[in-house]
C-alpha cells in the first residue's frame, strides 16, 4: 500500500462511518516508533506508522485510521477531541475505533528486554527501589524515611 491508496481508503472510511469528508492529507511516517498513528493539530494531517501494515495488515491500519479520524472530526467541529473527553469516547464507541493499537512485537523485544535494572535499598527502612537508570546515591535519599541508599544489585532484565 502506498500513500495514495492510504489517502483513498481514509476518505472512504470518513464518508462511510463519519458521514463527513476528510479534506486533508494522510501518509505513512517511518519515523513513528511507539504509536500507530498521529493526528496533527496544526495541519490537520494524519500520519500512520507503516510498521503496523507490515506486522498486522490492513485491518489494524483501518482501526488506526478510525481512531485518528475521531480526533480529526471532533477537532474540526470544535468538540472534545482528546482521549479524556466524553465526545471522543462516545464517537469511538459509535464507529468501533480501538482505544489502543496492538503493540509492535519487535519494538518490545529490542527495547524492553535489553535494559539493565538497578536495585537500590534504603539503609534505614530497607525500602527497595528498582530503576532503569543509575541513581547518584550521594545526592538522593529514601522517599519514606530520608535514609541513605545503597546499590544492592545490578541485573540484566532479559534474564
Feature tags:
single chain, 159 residues, alpha+beta, three-stranded mixed β-sheet, three-stranded antiparallel β-sheet, 5 helices, 38% helix, elongated
Largest sheet: 3 strands, mixed
SS content category: alpha+beta
**Span between termini:** 39 Å
Query: Strand portion, in percent?
Result: 15-25%
| Sheet with most strands: strand arrangement | 1-3-2
How many distinct helices?
5
Share of helix, binned: 25-40%
Mean pLDDT: 90
From the alpha-carbon coordinates, what is the Rg to the nearest angstrom?
22 Å
- The succession of helices and strands, N to C, reads HEEEHHHHEEE
Tell me about this structure.
This protein has a three-stranded mixed beta sheet. A three-stranded antiparallel beta sheet has the order 5-4-6, with no helix packed on it. The protein is elongated. The two termini are 39 Å apart. A hairpin with a 5-residue loop joins strand 4 (116-122) and strand 5 (128-131). The chain has helices at 3-18, 50-56, 58-77, 86-95, 105-111; strands at 26-28, 37-39, 46-48, 116-122, 128-131, 149-156. The protein has 159 residues and is an alpha+beta fold. Helices cover 38% and strands 18% of the residues. The chain is built from five helices and six strands; from the N terminus they run αβββααααβββ. The mean pLDDT is 90. The longest helix is centred in the middle third of the chain and has 20 residues, at 58-77.
Amino acid at each position: 500500500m502506498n500513500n495514495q491508496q492510504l489517502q483513498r481508503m481514509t476518505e472512504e472510511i470518513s464518508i462511510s462511518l463519519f458521514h463527513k469528508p476528510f479534506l486533508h492529507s494522510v501518509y505513512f511516517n517511518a519515523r513513528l516508533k511507539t504509536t500507530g498513528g498521529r493526528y496533527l493539530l496544526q495541519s490537520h494531517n494524519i500520519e500512520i506508522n507503516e510498521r503496523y501494515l507490515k506486522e498486522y495488515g490492513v485491518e489494524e491500519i483501518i482501526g488506526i485510521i478510525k481512531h485518528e479520524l475521531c480526533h480529526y472530526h471532533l477537532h474540526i467541529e470544535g468538540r472534545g477531541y482528546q482521549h479524556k473527553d466524553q465526545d471522543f469516547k462516545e464517537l469511538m464507541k459509535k464507529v468501533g475505533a480501538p482505544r489502543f493499537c496492538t503493540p509492535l512485537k519487535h519494538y518490545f523485544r529490542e527495547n524492553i528486554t535489553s535494559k539493565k535494572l538497578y536495585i537500590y535499598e534504603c539503609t534505614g527502612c530497607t525500602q527497595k527501589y528498582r530503576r532503569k537508570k543509575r541513581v547518584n546515591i550521594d545526592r538522593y535519599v529514601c522517599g519514606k524515611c530520608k535514609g541513605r541508599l545503597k546499590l544492592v544489585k545490578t541485573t540484566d532484565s532479559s534474564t
